[in-house]
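Exercise 7.
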Amino acid sequence: MNMATDMPSPFLFTDNAASKVRELIDEEGNPDLKLRVFVTGGGCSGFQYGFTFDEITNDDDTEVKKSGVTLLVDPMSYQYLVGAEIDYVESLEGSQFTIKNPNAQSTCGCGSSFTV
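Solution. The predicted structure, written as tokens, is:
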């Protein structure tokens, strides 16, 4: 399911998010790292988002490349994240990666879990 870089992306990976990922990868000193975004069961709304760095790209991962960094999404998470915006936000409450998901029917107050 690897997608070519010239195909339209199923996710909006913002400039802010790509820039922050680049900064974090540079701090780690490992250019092979990629940001993996995933969905797991749990949280107060039924599903929750997760973020981790990964060196391995699985054959069935979807890749989105932006500004020299790669976002990975596994097939199970893909169905819940298609059309979502992955961003990095800095505010008075703190700094964090966020997801605006058009597939979520409701979300919890912290924005880290959702219902479809």
